[in-house]
Amino acid sequence: MGVINMAHGEFMILGAYMTYLCSTFFQAHLPGLFPIFFFVAMGLAFLASGALGMATEWLLIRHLYKRPLDTLLATWGLSLILQQAYRSIFGAREVGVELPSWLIGSVQVTDTIEIPINGLFVMGVTVLITLGVALLIFRSRFGQQVRAVMANRAMAGAVGIDTEKVDRLTFGLGCGIAGVAGSAFTMIGSTGPTSGQLYIVDTFLIVVFGGAASLLGTIASAFSISQTQSTLEFFLSGSMAKVLTLLAVVGILMLRPQGLFTLKVRR
Amino acid sequence: MFGDYSLGDLGAIFAMQGFAGLILFSVYLLMALGWRSSSGRWA
């Protein structure tokens, strides 16, 4: 596809805002069902971000395939539009999501170690989604079509695959997953119109650091970067932890520019 | 940086921060998976 999506953070924030709307709606109108609102919120976040993603692909991205710099510029403009839209609809102030009582607190493992329940829950959801995406892409007919289109668009079209439909669904799937990430994001911070910008660079870093063609590399790099940052934040300030993490990543990329994991491909 | 803590304390700190970092890992992983999908990096 050759798309660099600079608005990916804003799709994540749409998911976060959908979670916020769900939280306030359930609190106001369905207080008895509030304990399960997060499941509904994640589903809505996926659908809303996915639908916006598919609309974006149809209106904007499909005209710019094979022009990655143009997609970078166009999606950067889209991200500015979305940020202003969020500012106009939800206000410039950051909003927080109230969690149900069963997600608050921690499990005492030993005298000194506690595991936050919301961390376990989000981790479980992430594992399910990662497995689901892996099964969809590598074990399903649709996934076969996606990989065929990405490998050789002309030949995939020649054997009867609707390449435009595959592109749209793939882009929508990616944005939908970002929406679920936004739901998870509400557990670690407040949501504001520009919060997505904090994560877009980290996202590129994780994909490049892990190796652009490797799913296992993406998992390994996300784990190593998040754990390094989280651990260093205890001993240093947040900014310093980020600086040291990025320095380590830059150093490793200088020694191994292809990333942590590489797949041998025939070109 | 680590000199103020015993080995046992350090182990507990690393474990606690590790679990606290699970949400950040989840956000990063989901964002990266989504970005790979939307940019067509599955071949």
Structural key phrases:
heterodimer, A: 267 residues, two-stranded antiparallel ribbon, 2 strands, B: 43 residues, 0% strand
Please give a structural write-up:
The complex is a heterodimer of chains A (267) and B (43). Chain A contains 10 helices and 2 strands. Chain A has helices at 8-29, 37-59, 68-90, 117-139, 141-151, 153-158, 163-185, 197-210, 215-235, 238-255, and strands spanning 106-108, 114-116. Chain A has a two-stranded antiparallel sheet. Chain A is globular, with a radius of gyration of 20 Å. Chain B is mainly alpha-helical. The longest helix of chain B has 17 residues, at 22-38. At the A-B interface, α1, β2, α4, α5 and α7 of A face α1 and α2 of B.
SSE inventory with pairings:
The complex is a heterodimer of chains A (267) and B (43).
Chain A: H1 8-29, H2 37-59, H3 68-90, E1 106-108, E2 114-116, H4 117-139, H5 141-151, H6 153-158, H7 163-185, H8 197-210, H9 215-235, H10 238-255
Antiparallel strand pairs in A: 1-2
Helix pairs in contact in A: 1-2, 1-3, 1-7, 2-7, 4-5, 5-7, 8-9, 9-10
Chain B: H1 7-20, H2 22-38
